Batch of 3 targets.
Target 1
Amino acid sequence: MVDTLATEDYVTIAVYFGIVLAVGLWVGASIYASNIGAPMFIGLAGTAAASGLAVTIYEWHAEIYSGAIFLRHILKWNMYLCVVVILAVTAVFTIVGIIQVGGWDEMTEKYMHSAANYTLMNQSLYSCGMPREDSLHIFRSATTGDIPWTGALTGLSIMGLYVWCQDQLIVQRTLSARDMAHAKAGTLLGGALKLLGLFTFIVPGMISRILYPDEIACADPDKCEAFCHNKAGCSNFAYPVLVLRLMPKGLRGLMLAALLAALMSSLTSILNSASAIATMDIWKQFRKKATQAELMVVGRVTVMILVVISIVWLPIMDAAQGGMFWFYFIGIRSYFLPQMCILFVLGLFWKRLTEQGAFWGLMISLVIGMIRMVLDFTFIKPSCGSGDEDTRPSIISKVDFTHFAAILAVLCCISMLRRVTWWTKDDDEDPELSSEDDEVVDEQRINKAEIIEDNGTALPVSFGQRFCKAFKDWVCGTTDEVHKHQYLTQREIIHLRKKMKSIDETALYRKVLNGAAIIMSLLTAFLIGKFS
């Protein structure tokens, strides 16, 4: 039984990245790659192994930690070393797994009876080690389900709307499209690829539980600790175990390379977005005349701080995830995303929203979300089979995080700014422009090769000074250049604003893309109905 990579796997990884770096990706593939990461393979597959099909609703509607789990098991590295090379992968071997367990019907039947041998012989662990009775259904009880149908339709829809319509990680991909038609087509392609989540994430997790029940379905804390160093459960290892034990040499490396490529794409976008927010939205509030070099330094320092915080947070995640990382991952989002979604939606469709309403709506919702998060980390649910009494407050034990997201969204229905609503996007309310209002849109750079004294004479620069300056510029992303501003005329500014607000597209593209969107919506509804 193989649990490590061979030389052929490392060669495959190197070749894979050599090819990928030479090939461009479409908008749709970029959208999909930005969203697909280690949380999908670790979280979705692991939760499917423990809970069944219902988790696929997240696809149809924690990036660093999950990649660390994958690498910690594959490469036998320490978690903190794994953070440097975390990842995500494509599940091309699902068909092999289904054949191995005897086909789809056999898979669903075997899954319902998959449990560790010691679980079947130990009555006290039996209820904890067996799959849920509703494992093969998406919509589950509103009161006893781990993914209640009411929360799936409300709370998850709100969080999904934020992720796909407002999250800069996804939005910046569509902004890079050539025109509106390409942006819509790329979005539809990304949506079509997401429909495959049932077969690329969920089914492999269920297959892993069937093939390796003593490890993936472990219910005894001591045995779980021995296998995956987590007493809460080992379902998070469903996908990496399946890859390592089912795939031949070389293909294991391809899986790992795909995982690395997808995760690197996601992390690059996340860190870039965070850096942009820190520099353009926060730092400029305090330093309105900050230079480009200063902003570059602030951006890079922000990235370093985020990486350090992420590493420090790893032990907390390891202790709080409760054996199913995906629930932790989405639970964290439920504390902070609903208010952002409501802010965006109300800003589009309600003209009476105000800036003060937007600000205080966000602040109140942020406080409520923080309180819920602190309570969740403070009051931990007793592990199954421990016999301990559940002492959590009712607001924690009775209100699922999907329901909390819906409640928080309702409480946040306030706020927004004038002139950013959908109905007023074409309002002619721009202020009159004067010669003093011209905007800087480009910079003409003038190189400086020497240090100039106040009296105008040039001092030669030593090799040591040039080396130190070049190293500083390389680290901070700055240049030793002076900027001379070039201004736009009033007419050019007006033309640029009209072009920025334009959403024109050809009639043919509009009909084809709208038709494709309708077909995709109907197909999604059919799949949800079939597995409900």
Target 2
Amino acid sequence: MTKQSPSIVKNDGLGRKGMNPATLMTLLVIPALLLGAGWVFWQQLQDTPAREVGILAPPYGIISVRFSTEPFPATTSGPVQMILLMQAGGGSTVNLDRVTYSYNSPSNGEPIEAEATQIARNTYQGILSFDTIGDWQVTITIENDGNINEGTVTIPVKPPI
């Protein structure tokens, strides 16, 4: 019969006390912070209006128009650059006769109208100027082959920080 030696137990510093308090706090605080940040991000997504609209433009069919502003969110502090990215089905290039836009304040004042400038393939640019905070309606009008069609997006305008 062979004798077995007793196994050696390592002392990892935990003993009967359990987990180190700093480690325990870290394991509780970090997930709570991540959850809180995720919740704030989700709320911002929910509060942001749709920034894409489909506009019928023969012969391309429905063109997807993605709308972005710089700065985002738009503010009342000065001119806001608007970029319109136009994409036909399958990502094909669109050659449009004319792209215009108009926008008016939440109090439904007189609309401001302007023509967008093509700055790259499928990309148009315009300048917006907001004098009040709130949700502004921007109507994008596409003229092509004698057809005129439009779509509207809502732009949240915030006070300058």
Target 3
Amino acid sequence: MRLRAIRESGLMDGDPQRVPDGDARSGDRATYRALVRDAVHDAIAVLLPVACSGCGRADRAVCTECRSALAPEPRRIERAGLAIWAGLEYAGVAASVLGAFKDGARTDAASALVPALRASLRSALAGVSTGSPVEVCTIPSTPAARRARGYVPVDVLLKRCGIRPTAVLALARERLDQAGLDADARRRNAAGGLVARGRRPSTGRESWSVDAAGVRLQGRRFLLVDDIVTTGSTLAEAVRAIAAAGGETAAIAVLAETPRRLPERAAISRETLRDFAAQGGYGGMTGVVDPPFRTG
């Protein structure tokens, strides 16, 4: 997907239904499908009431009040030495909805999360120079996570944005769930876990090994996308794997950032978080609250 195509699509101008690299008719069809989908959801909510994934009240998948709480607030953050754009803070309603969507099978909440991801993508792309194509790529999920969920959360959201990511990364080995690990453990767990995608051995079985020999990405630029960032270890590993194959990570965008929280007894402002983190005072029991869902 070329950067120019992305910028000329609804992703950059706020039109929620335009599909990158598509024509006007594609946008019209997407708009029509969205209207039909909303009408169906309204009808289902009347016949088969559902609980809002944000507050739990009987309503649509995400009630009006919770949708308002998910209004995009794109911000540039830094994790693991990387500049990252995030559309939301993983807290409050956003934490409830994202957790339900990611590990509660609440795919009906996806539409409420799309605006924040789109805002993050637009912000990230705004700082990318024109020129060679920019491809969207994501962090691969583990086979276990795919089986447990039945879908890949970030791919569902990107599809709603009209984007089909390039499968450029693959798992090099099995890794632990990042949730519950402190910052050092996350770095160790992520290190060496990804490679540029090569041709998978045709064994007919899932395999952790990927034949990456000869995979070269020279001249290719990527917009790296993930659903949530905590310490940034996994994103840093993805950047390393792309660079090792000769590619360039032009920008990074995530749906939400997990805030680095100080212990309740620490009466100091959020502006001190950088120093606090530098001293190792986040992660595990001392600070950041890990997302209560499966990672990868």
